[in-house]
Amino acid sequence: MVVQDNVDARDAGVGVLLEPFLHQVGGHLSVMKYDEHTVCKPLISREQRFYESLPLAMKRFTPQYKGTITVHLQKDSRGQVSLVASPLKEDRRLLKVPAESAAVAIWQTLQQTSGSSGGACPLAERQRAHLAHSLQESAAKVLLRSEFHLSAPVSSLLEDANGNQVERRSFNPWGLHCHQAHLSRLCSEYPENQLHQFLLLENVVSQYRHPCILDLKMGTRQHGDDASEEKKARHVRKCAQSTSACLGVRICGMQVYQTDKKHFLCKDKYYGRKLSVEGFRQTLYQFLHDGTRLRTELLEPILHQLRALLSVIKSQSSYRFYSSSLLIIYDGQDLQERTPDGLRAQEAPKTAQDSSARGLAKVDIRMIDFAHTTYKGSWNEHTTYDGPDPGYIFGLENLIGILQDIQEGQ
């Protein structure tokens, strides 16, 4: 992460209060919400250079790059810590965030959590029930009800009282887990007034009412060329013990909206690492199932976009997308559900790029996370490769094959 000089004191309190991004399903770096259509994440120089030199053919499969912003830690009179971004040049007015902002409220609760004593008790089952409340009420407002107080680290939200991973949530807890870890690191390693650089990227799920997201770690190799021997060995071991080695793809996170229960079913990267090939197939099937039926109408547009991406990857010589992820996104609102204005979804205006007169379901395929991507001509590279990325292609071909099997009912 790039760190700049100290912030000018006169700028304190001016800027955009960053909110936790509640649809982060994988990764370890905290992704935050800048506005409805923009997210941000800690800047890594290699990833910034990738976005700035992105081949035209790949742009439809990556989030739009919107530049960088400066971020600093800010404490209020109660000692609660927030991350505040300097607004973009075209938005230099003072920006106020409503006191009842859902994500900001969660963020403030996390500050109280991270500062609590290490002997905190686990969440009671009665308190956990609040997290599965209807999506008609924001997750944060449920968390912050007067009778609900977080008294344990966010990581405990991922487990029930018996230590088993809880699947059903009204929001995905993984992003909050990442936020807490990131905030703790910033507070311990940097002074309050230190400046940090963040990347601004398109919020690729902003158009979805109930975004169902599958985060897939692609390729047979995950370590970058600059990895230490210890890190290289660790990543090689993870690949060998997961579907990365035999399929070239493994699940790093998932949320799928269950229409019968009105909540998300969530899985994290630890679940994905344990899957066999058959378990991977079953989880893909589960990702396409809304709790009532298999969303078979999703398969054609997903396969169409994956094949298009495969063609693009095959045409990119020297690129190696080590440790990058692929997102598959669709709307959990079934085509037969009625929209708030009373229209059936297929009668409403279609905004997704792959919707058509045939009424194809809204789906999206996006590559993300390029901190370890290398290619010929990138700055300060000691290793260059010829031809397209074989590990990524292997993973895409296997993914396409499994989805075809599901489509054919095998």
From TrEMBL:
Look up the record and give one Gene Ontology term from the biological process aspect. Answer: phosphatidylinositol phosphate biosynthetic process
MF GO annotations: ATP binding; inositol hexakisphosphate kinase activity
EC numbers for this chain: 2.7.-.-
**One Pfam family matching this protein:** IPK
Assigned keywords, A-Z: ATP-binding, Kinase, Nucleotide-binding, Transferase
* Coiled-coil residue windows: none
- Enzyme superclass (EC): transferase
**Which cellular components does GO assign to this protein?**
cytoplasm; nucleus
Q: Supply the InterPro entries for this chain.
A: IPK, IPK_sf
Q: Which family does it belong to?
A: Belongs to the inositol phosphokinase (IPK) family.
Quote the protein name from its UniProt record: Kinase
* Organism of provenance: Tupaia chinensis
